[in-house]
Amino acid sequence: MRRRIYFLLTSFVVLLLLMTVARGLFMLDNLGEAADMSVSDGLYTLVNGGAIDLSVALLLMLLPLAMVAVSVPLGARKWWRGVMLGYYVVLTGAFAVIFTKDALAYGITHHRLDYDTWGAMTTEWFSTGEMWAYAGVGLLFWAVGAASLWLVLRMSRKFSPLTMKRAIPSIGIMLAILLFGASWCTGKLPRYGAAYFSSNRFMNEAAVNPLMSLVESSSVRPDYSPMELYARRVKPVFEAPKVVADTLAEDSLMVADTLVVDTLPQVEEPTPLNPLLRNTRPNILMLIMNGVTHHEFDVQVDGRYVMWHLNQLCSEGYLFENFYANSRGVENAAIVTLTSGCVTLPGAANQDAPFKSERMVTLPRMLDSLEYNCEAWYGGDYLHNNMRAFLYGTGFDNVVDHHKLPFYGVVGGVDDGVLLPLVADRVVDMPSPFFCVATLRSMNSVDKVPYSLYEDVRLNAAAFIDEQIGVAVRRLKYSGAWDNMLVIVVGDSDGQDVRVPLMVVGGAVDGFGVVSTMCSQMDVPQTVARAMELGASRLPFGEDLMSADDKRVTFTYNGGYGVVVSDDDFQLFTPGYGSVGLDSAMMMRKYLAEGDMCEYYRELMER
């Protein structure tokens, strides 16, 4: 039994070494990209990437584990060694092909190999000399890897069958390891975004495991062109028939009859001439309240608003009463839209396509030219939904989630009562200028909020968020940081309702009032960019919140997307890829490109 354990350990180490060598060769091949990296940076990159390699190697060891379990009662016969040798040859061959295409593609795309770059690669990208050189290195890598694992396989010649007394517990142990490994790898395997750990782009790229990158990205493959074509600022004009959507909560698209703050004046016709800001270079704090909609923001209990701190705060700036989330139920979609203006996809997440997201025009990238320090804070896990990859890849200098917070043994993250004081202290001490985004998560776990003001758990969690924001605001005002600050407090859909609160406040805001213009999360980056004179035309999505132009608000849900036309009217685009099919999505793309949506709807209804 000891020989089998040695065999498994040796195979695991060789696989791990092959991936580490491939990472080292990648860094050597791109030394020009690593000019600003120190030796310690390089070692840290190898260590950070090694954590992902470890998980990938464990996943690849599941078949050898199963084969060793089979060898316990039968021994390692000729067919057994043939299966193992074939597996090792195919595995190292796949390594070699991925290694070669990754090295070739990176020089052109400056992105590690994924489904987008794999499918787009053509021989026109490279010279004949480059292809032959990299092909030679790839073949050498294949030969060395296969030979190394073949030498390890020779250890199996001494695998003899064990007696039933010894075989049964050994098989049990092997099967337990196999089942544990399979469940661990499918549930705990770090995603592509786990490799992103630095504001240095090349260090993140060097830490990526290209095998994981290719497998993961090929399983997503979102078709995001139809909705994005519609959502761009230059939209085709059409009259579409209204489609009844049984899957949407009707009250999520209705506007309340009464204002949240009755004493505020109505801003009937805001214009782009309204500067919004007292100066064009404020510090910016954005607070995203996951799951907080107007159901929580408007409600009163015993004559008092549940979120009374925020209701009072409205009088210090602008309240947008007809503001909508861009997504209904896509987790962590808000921060993507609020920093890029990019429309949320109905069937996949933008952050799951790093090759696409890293080429977005985003507020952090625009602010980088002004030497803004950009940070994102979250009490949960930013590895979820590949958010860490998106944030580092789109211009954030620092990403802080519960992995970096100064608490140990935290399961599932820290609550907003812990996060917001840390954010307030950081904002007070952060060198100007800065852009700080904090995502609040109490509505995601309403039954775990350390608060007991209301019996209704959702109202109780909303009141807890409101109180923590109130405390943070007093801290900022007391310190003086508030005086030159643009504070954006915005809600996000709870999975049912899409009408959410938005208030733009802070000492840097010029003016106050209630704005009734239809608008959405897509409009926030455009508005900030215009107010700061950053060249908002670079952002392909969204419109200025302070514009009097009529807007059509778009939102997505799981499998489709819709448009809020007026207070009590909405239109639903395609019922979704799942129910209509890919051919309908392709049909919609054609009609969108031609600007004829009426024909699209007629054909869709006939089918």
List the SSEs and their pairings.
Elements: H1 2-29, H2 39-60, H3 62-74, H4 78-109, H5 115-120, H6 128-153, H7 164-188, H8 201-207, H9 210-220, H10 225-231, E1 266-267, E2 283-289, H11 294-298, E3 300-301, E4 304-305, H12 308-313, E5 318-320, E6 323-324, H13 333-340, H14 354-357, H15 363-368, E7 373-378, H16 387-393, E8 398-400, H17 416-429, E9 434-440, H18 457-479, E10 485-491, E11 502-505, E12 513-515, E13 519-520, H19 523-531, E14 553-557, E15 560-566, E16 569-572, H20 577-580, H21 582-594, H22 597-606
Parallel strand pairs: 1-12, 2-9, 2-10, 5-12, 6-13, 7-8, 7-9
Antiparallel strand pairs: 3-4, 5-11, 10-11, 14-15, 15-16
Helix pairs in contact: 1-2, 1-6, 2-8, 3-7, 4-6, 10-21, 17-18, 21-22
Descriptive notes:
- The protein is α/β, with parallel strands linked by helices.
- 47% of the residues lie in helices and 11% in strands.
- It has 22 helices and 16 strands.
- The protein has helices at residues 2-29, 39-60, 62-74, 78-109, 115-120, 128-153, 164-188, 201-207, 210-220, 225-231, 294-298, 308-313, 333-340, 354-357, 363-368, 387-393, 416-429, 457-479, 523-531, 577-580, 582-594, 597-606; strands at 266-267, 283-289, 300-301, 304-305, 318-320, 323-324, 373-378, 398-400, 434-440, 485-491, 502-505, 513-515, 519-520, 553-557, 560-566, 569-572.
- The strands form 4 sheets. The protein has a 9-stranded mixed beta sheet, sandwiched between helices.
- Helix 1 runs antiparallel to helix 6 (128-153) and helix 10 runs parallel beside helix 21 (582-594).
- 44% of the residues are buried.
